[in-house]
Structures are given as C-alpha cells and as structure tokens.
Amino acid sequence: MKKTYFLYTLPLLLFLNCKNEKKDSIAETKVPETNQVKKTNSLVTTRIDSAQVPKTLKYKGNFKDGFRWKDKTGEYVVLTSETGVYINENFSHENDGSDAEVFAHCYSLENNQQIWKVNDFIKDCMVDIDAAFKKNSLKVTDLDKNGIAEIWVMYEMACKGDVSPSDLKIIMYEGKQKFAMRGESKIRTGMENHGKPVFEGGSYTFDKAFQQGPKAFRDYAEKLWNEHMAD
Predict the structure, then answer these.
(1) Is 33 part of a structural domain of the chain?
(2) Given 3-state DSSP classes, what are the helix, strand and coil percentages for the chain, each rounded to the nearest 5?
(3) According to the model, what pLDDT value does residue 41 have?
(4) Tell me, what's the pLDDT at 199?
(5) 51 lies in some domain
(6) What value, to the nearest 5°, has the Cα angle with vertex 138 and ends 213 and 221?
C-alpha cells in the first residue's frame, strides 16, 4: 500500500512544483520591465491652480496660471500673476496716474529657492492700461531634447488713449538662460475699398539669445506669437 501511495502522490508533487516554477519565471520577467522606466530624463508636467501653489511660495497680485514639472535637473513650479490697475506706493508719480504689473516666478521645489523672476510694469499712466498675460500662453517644453525644460510666458503691455498696437513680449527660460522676443500686437484698423481688412502691428525681433539658440526655439516662438498676437 505504501508503494501505491507513493506512486500516486509523486505525479501530483511534480505537477505542483512545475506550476510554482512557472509562476516564479513569470514574475522574474516582469520586474526588469518596471525597472527600465526612467523618469529622470523625461519631462513630466502638470498644470496647477492657485490652490495647488505651495504655501511657502509667495507672489504678488492675482494668480493667473501655473505649471509644476520635473526634468533631469529637479522639480520646479512656475506661476504667473497680475496686479491689475492700482497705485504702487514704491513708484514715483508725477501725473497722479495709475500702475499695473505682471509677474512670473520659477521656484525649485527641493529648497523653495527662486530660480528666476519676470517683472514688467506700467507706471503713472493717465489713460488706459493693459498689463496682462495672454490666455493659455504659459507653456513648458523640451524642444531641444536635452532633458531641461523651457518655460514660456507671453504678455501685453500698454498705456494708451487710442486704438493702436500694444507692446507684446515672449520671455522664455531654459534653466537660468533668458530668451526674449519683443514686438507689437496686431490690430485691425479698418477696411480697404474692396472689403479687405487693414491691420497694423504684428512685427517682432529676437534678442541675441534667440538668434544664436536652436532653430526649434525660434520656430516655436513664432508659432506662439502668431497664435496670440491678435487676441
């Protein structure tokens, strides 16, 4: 009887052992797939709202837009804000005019250190003021594929009492390197006799950094300009 029992149980033991070996083999092939995912050299971006800005990061004015991202150099946040029309007591005022400012801040989330800051303003303006970021123009890219994000902000500035183009600017940072594109907004001023609309403005110039930088930067800047110059 003992021999019969052994003969019946031996195939069962071999079957169970084979199943366990098969499971272990499957598990071992899955582990390397997970470990091969390397996010340190990938650009991971997330748009944030005002409630998602870390409390330790301060900014002036009203929150407009923001991004959080991670590239090969670390994890960062950028946020833009506007003051609207107000009186800045730190500005000199000879005409009892008003002021307006725009801000863009980039911070490292590892130590809350400010990496760069954009601050532009209109001061002591007696007529209409326009100081605002273009809607949905804040962008985070890696066009040159070097693992370091490029941050784009675009805004309009004007102090005028007529219908004319406003100053328009694109500021881009890659790390601490600044790139600037400056020009005018494009506005419709009338119609020709045969019904064709007449426009004014829309021209721009690249600074030295853009001129000497990758063509991909200039191409993207022109695309962003054309999308928003007539907003």
Answers:
(1) no
(2) 25, 40, 35
(3) 55
(4) 79
(5) yes
(6) 30
